[in-house]
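User: Could you check the structure of this?
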Amino acid sequence: MNALHILALVTGLALFVGMLEMLRRRQLREKYAILWLLVGVAVAVLAIDPGIIDLAADALGVADPPNLLLFAASVVLLLFTVQLSWETSRLEDETRALAEEVALLRQRVEQQGALNG
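Assistant: Sure, the predicted structure tokens are below.
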């Protein structure tokens, strides 16, 4: 195992342990932690057995295995970005609806106060 494999293994394990700790402290929700835990495991597995990427590259007809690795990493990051964008959009809609509801309730309370006062 060369220095790069050791670095990748340490990085994967650190990511895994870091995500578990963030989960334990409730700083990260489970649905996000699962994705990052899978990434940590994948990095560690590829660090332990780098031949897996060679086999995958051969099976897919990719001439240079590191290109497949970079492509896969780009796809994973793209999927994470799309998922987080979807979550952000959903939360913005929810926040807007709640703000409108609060404004209507505030108006109703003010009208009740004006009628009683």
